[in-house]
Design goal:
The chain is mainly alpha-helical and 151 residues long. The protein contains six helices and no strands.
């Protein structure tokens, strides 16, 4: 039995299987609600960390922000396919990305990804979202939301 290292952050990433029945539909709704509440909680935590002065908390805050930034990037790529973004989950993910990247040094504490690479992945992910709504960049020409989202 292997214990997970970040069970709360792992709940952020939506791994959905196709819905086949009423029970699966309810389970999906519960997962979405859980992710919504968890994202709100983590965003509140990030805002609180901005005013922390305790030395130990400051040491833990950096790795926390970097780990969360990696999970949010994964949410952006997995939860919503580039051709279809669920606006509520996209908004939560982008709001989290704003909070996590608001303070300097957010990308410096990963053992697996260099800071520069993480920043480049963020830019690529954000450009993918923008281009999926922006018609002139190959987005969906039938989308009525495109103009509002890209503004």
């Amino acid at each position: 039995f292997r214990q997970e290292t970040n069970p709360l952050m792992n709940l952020l990433v939506q791994t959905e299987l196709p819905v086949h029945g009423e029970t699966d539909e309810i389970q999906t709704l519960v997962k979405q609600r859980l992710q919504k509440e968890l994202t709100g909680f983590l965003n509140t935590m990030l805002r609180s960390l901005a005013s922390v002065t305790n030395r130990k908390c400051l040491l833990l805050a950096g790795p926390f922000r970097t780990q969360l930034s990696l999970k949010l990037l994964q949410c952006l790529r997995i939860t919503d396919a580039p051709h279809f973004y669920g606006l509520p989950s996209l908004e939560r993910t982008l709001r989290g990305m704003v909070h996590v990247t608001a303070l300097p040094g957010w990308s410096l504490h990963s053992a697996t990804v260099e800071s520069y690479c993480l920043c480049m992945k963020y830019l690529a992910g954000l450009l993918e979202v923008i281009s999926s709504f922006y018609v002139e960049w190959g987005g969906n020409a039938m989308s009525f939301m495109g103009k509002g989202v890209t503004k």
